[in-house]
């Protein structure tokens, strides 16, 4: 284990031991610990696509959130609203097409793992 990984592990262990709120909900702790160990292993194998230090930091943050009983992700409505809000940066005449692409209209090619997902839709202008 390199120094960065060791420091992150020790910092997480110390923060956990000193945090009185960490004992709030122990029902999800065994699963959170298991998930954390799996994520750390992915980090060590370089499978995350992130720098080791970043990967370990993200894994630790996810572990703490799970221990506190916070949900794994935001509600679907929040995610959809966040995605469509990004379309406000587009020119007014392009915003509706942007929203439609975000919501899944048109064709999609590629993959996130392959480097990107390209969404395309065609609009007839009269």
| Average pLDDT number | 75
The strand line-up of the biggest sheet is: 1-2
Number of helices: 5
Give the radius of gyration.
20 Å
Strand content: 5-15%
Give the oligomer, counting copies of the same chain as homo and different chains as hetero.
single chain
Secondary-structure content class = mainly alpha
What does this structure look like?
The protein is mainly alpha-helical and 126 residues long. The protein has two domains: 3-67, no CATH class; 76-120, no CATH class. Helices cover 56% and strands 8% of the residues. The protein has helices at 3-18, 29-45, 52-67, 76-85, 92-102; strands at 107-111, 116-120. It has a two-stranded antiparallel ribbon with strand order 1-2. Helix 1 (3-18) runs parallel beside helix 3 (52-67). The longest helix is centred in the N-terminal third of the chain and has 17 residues, at 29-45. It is elongated and about 60 Å long. The N and C termini lie far apart (63 Å).
Q: What labels describe this entry?
A:
single chain, 126 residues, mainly alpha, 2 domains, two-stranded antiparallel sheet, 5 helices, 56% helix, elongated
Topology:
Elements: H1 3-18, H2 29-45, H3 52-67, H4 76-85, H5 92-102, E1 107-111, E2 116-120
Antiparallel strand pairs: 1-2
Describe what is shown at a glance.
This protein has helices spanning 3-18, 29-45, 52-67, 76-85, 92-102; strands at 107-111, 116-120.
